[in-house]
Amino acid sequence: MANESRPCPCDIGDRFDYGGRGQEVQVGHIEAYVCKPSASTDKAVIVIHDIFEWQLPNTRYIADMLTTNGYIAICPDFFVGQEAWKPSNDWASFNDWVKTRDAGKIDKEVDVVLKYLKDQCGAKKIGVIGFCWGGAAVQHLMLKNPHLKTGVSLYGVISRFEDKHSLLHPTFFIFGEKDNIIPLEQVTLLEQKLKQNCKVDYEVKIYPGQTHGFVHRKREDINPQDKPYIEEGRKDMINWLNKYL
C-alpha cells in the first residue's frame, strides 16, 4: 500500500466529462450499467470498477469502448449500494473502509451477472476486466470461477492475492512502471510465481513511465506524453479479449 498519510490504491486522476451511451438496469439484487453493440453477439465482458464505484464516467467510457469493439459490456455495482470512496474522505480511514468491500467476496454478484448475461443477453463467451480494486477482483475470479473465459487485470492490487497464482483462465496483467502503489518488486515476484505455478496462458506487461490508473484515469488530450501508452494499454486489452473470447 502507499504511505500511511495516503494509503489509497487509486488516484482519482482525470475525471472524464462523459455521459455514457448505455443504460442502467437492475440485475437481481444489484444495479448495473449495460451497453450493447448494434450487431448481435454472444460475447460479453464484465467491467469491475475501482474504489470510485460503478458510476464513474471513466469506467463507463471503457465499457462503451468495449461495445464499439463488438462486446456486450456490463459494469455492475460490486459495492452493492455501499458508498464509494470519495477523494475528500480521510485517508487514515481507508484501510477500515476497504475491509468492508472485499475484492475476494464478489462471487454472489458475479453469479447473478453471469445469469443475466446468458439469459437476457444471449452471451456464451464471457470475460472480465477490472481496474485497481477491480483488478484484484479479476485475479480472484481467474483463480476460481469456471464460467469465465479470460481476464484483464489493470493495475490490480497484487497484495490482495499475493499467495495465489494457479490461474484457471488466460489472464493479462497491466502495470505502470511508476506506480507508487504497486512497486516493481511486487510485479517481478508475481511473474516468478506465475512462471512456477500457472498452467494457462498469461502475460505481465509494464508500461514505461506510467503511474497508477493510466489506462482509464488519464486523458490522451491533456496528457500528451502519456498518449501512446494509454492507447497501447487499451489496444492490448482489446487484443487479449479478442484472442480468448
UniProtKB/TrEMBL annotation:
Gene Ontology cellular component terms for the protein in this record: cytosol
Keyword Cytoplasm: yes
Start and end residues of each Dienelactone hydrolase domain: 30-245
Compartments, record wording: Cytoplasm, Cytosol
One Pfam family named in its UniProt record: DLH
Listed transmembrane segments: none
Molecular function per GO: hydrolase activity
SUPFAM superfamilies in UniProt: alpha/beta-Hydrolases (SSF53474)
Keywords: Cytoplasm
InterPro entries registered for this protein in UniProt: AB_hydrolase_fold, CMBL, Dienelactn_hydro
Family per record: Belongs to the dienelactone hydrolase family.
Annotated protein name in UniProt: Carboxymethylenebutenolidase homolog
The species this protein was found in: Donacobius atricapilla
